[in-house]
Amino acid sequence: METGVKVGDCMTTTLVTVRESASVVEAARLMKKSRIGSLLVTDDDGKIYGILTADDIVGKAVAFEKTNEPVKAFASKPLLCVPMDADLSEAAELMGKKNVKRLIVTGPGGRISGLISDRDIVKISPSLYDLIAERERLKA
Q1: 104: which strand partners?
Q2: CA nearest 107: which of 87, 86, 124?
Q3: What is the mean pLDDT of residues 111-129?
Q4: CA-based max dimension of the chain
């Protein structure tokens, strides 16, 4: 179901990164300060290779009392990407199939241009909720 809306038209372009060596506590503080639910994780050379979400912090670190460990241990990788010229329905379908709430948006040459979340999609096109909700059916 094509929406006619491109991912690049509703993505977030302000991206916040955290070094892989930062502690989970440092990452959580950065998320709180920035009022966001995820951080892009960089290696020592500044290359983005993963994403750390609030769910990762709670489910993988806090739940097991590992908050002083580096974010590298809890980051989701590889990054799941969608091209900025893809239709919003493609992003929603990919989120549902892969059971994720966020996708990295790539531009020309595969360069990271932004991030799109399930909330961004539902705000723009509530009818795509069913494609995103597929992940809930997959869990059952």
Answers
A1: 81, 115
A2: 86
A3: 83
A4: 45
What's the rounded Cα separation, in Å, for the pair 92 and 124?
A: 11
- Whole-model pTM: value is 0.84
Average pLDDT for residues 43-55, to the nearest whole number?
A: 95
CATH architecture, domain defined by 7-139: Roll (3.10)
Query: Tokens standing for 128?
Result: 């795509």
Percentage helix, strand, coil for the chain under 3-state DSSP, each rounded to 5: 45, 25, 30
Query: Which parts of the chain are beta strand (E)?
Result: 17-19, 38-42, 48-53, 81-83, 102-106, 112-117
Tokens of 83: 């091209």
Contact 17, 41 (CB under 8 A): yes
Residue 109 burial by CB count (10 A; 0-12/13-18/19+): exposed, middle or buried? Answer: exposed
